[in-house]
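User:
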Amino acid sequence: MESQAPSSADEPGQDSDELICRPFITLKSGKRIYASAYGKKAFCFKPKPRK
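Assistant: Predicted structure:
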């Protein structure tokens, strides 16, 4: 029997399967990068943890 360490996804309020998908991202410089320019429909990423 294998022992598994508890992950942060087991904590209440943590949803590790959640993704946010957007058709563009805005860089810190203010430049927008569109997913369609890279052959994608959207960029998907995990949301930042809320404070």
